[in-house]
Amino acid sequence: MKNFIFQNRTKIIFGKQTETEVGAEVKRNADKILFHYGSASIKKSGLYDTVVKSLNDAGVSFIELPGAQPNPRLNLVKEGIKICRDNGIKFILAVGGGSAIDSAKAIAVGVPYNGDVWDFYTGKAVPKEALDVGVVLTIPAAGSEASPSSVITNTDGDFKKGLTTELIRPVFSILNPELTYSLPPYQTACGAADIMAHIMERYFTNTDHVELTDRLCEATMKSVINSVPAALSDPENYNARAEIMWASTIAHNDLLGTGRVEDWCSHQIEHEISGIYDVTHGAGLAVVFPAWMKYVYKTNISRFAQFASRIWNVEIDTYDLQKTALEGIKRLESFFSSIGLPVRLKEMNIDDKRLEEMAEKCTGGDRYTAGNFVKLDKRGVLEVLKLAL
Fold first, then answer.
1. Which phi and psi angles does 94 have, rounded to 5°?
2. Pairing relation of β-strands 61-65 and 32-37?
């Protein structure tokens, strides 16, 4: 186990009707805020009215910025930065899923910065300060509600880049599983793939003696695997929705990565896919992760055999660990397919025409490598993409 520092300042407010507490939580931090959200679904569901009433009752004034969308856009971030600067706003409330939250975080670091916020996402600058962000979560998937990360898409060049800094970890997040009842089945499934990918990016490590976090990762993955079919068959199954929502947070609040070297290659590759083709992140991960596994599993075949045994109940063949490992990968693919997700690029109408471009962007033309479990150069990334076809 490696040395580590674990910290997480996010206050989690979990359970039924907790969204009614948002005004009081915001009031502890600010009297005037940016209210950032995505689609009209929060108005259709009544959540918008609940949030507005709670803010008004608490005496919090706000300016609205709707329009957050999947693979959140840099141009909307810049619009939010201008609104905050012009109106002296020091706090942002994000209501929605990872897209609204990530966009809010980008606005938060951009407001005090005398430069282009994209500098932070390309590594040209490091943020020194940020506005505080609060969250009402509606889609369990990205885990951004308690993470120090944000991913933004720049449509000028089809780039999708991430930023990680403690400055943008939310000060509070309100999690009511009831708010996920109306999610379409595909969105629920994509969220599950995103959650599992966050865990697997940590699980597949070459660090030894991490049994505790192995078991935590396995328990969280198995909870998702067991709960998603129940939520899909009965969208108002509160217990299933609660398990998925809490798993989303645990998967990406840094706890599961303590003491171990994480990978993140599959995420880097998927960012290139969704940056160009604007596919749903979870769907892209459902395609990339099994392909990555097929390319790297021989590097640490015992870990893949453990994954197959502990997650998918595959009996370990001590004389043929490769057979065990490959069966685990097969069962992961089968699970994704069973909940309605693609497992091949062609299922998302993506052909081989831009694979070279994606591999080039992912590795900066071989200026750097992707991942840690196996450090992939441009050729390696390209091979994973070919396996994903």
1. -105, 125
2. parallel
Identify the CA nearest to 361 among candidates 73, 106, 160, 201: 160
pLDDT tens-digit profile of 334-345? Answer: 999 999 999 999
The reply to whether CATH 3.40.50.1970 applies to domain 11-179 is yes
Structure tokens at 223: 């909870």
Cα dist. 169→138, 226, 254, 317 in Å?
18, 29, 11, 43
Distance, in Å, from the CA atom of 171 to the CA atom of 144, rounded to the nearest integer, reads 12
Rounded Cα distance between 199 and 219, Å, is 10
> In which residue ranges of the chain is CATH 1.20.1090.10 found?
185-388
Summarised one tens digit per residue, pLDDT across range 169-180 is 999 999 999 999
Which residues of the chain form CATH 3.40.50.1970? 11-179
> What letter does residue 95 receive in the DSSP assignment?
E
Residue owning tokens 């403690």: 166
Where do the H-state alpha helices sit in 204-298? 211-233, 238-252, 265-277, 281-296
Q: Answer whether 287's CB lies under 8 Å from 222's CB.
A: no
Structure tokens at 13: 């407010």
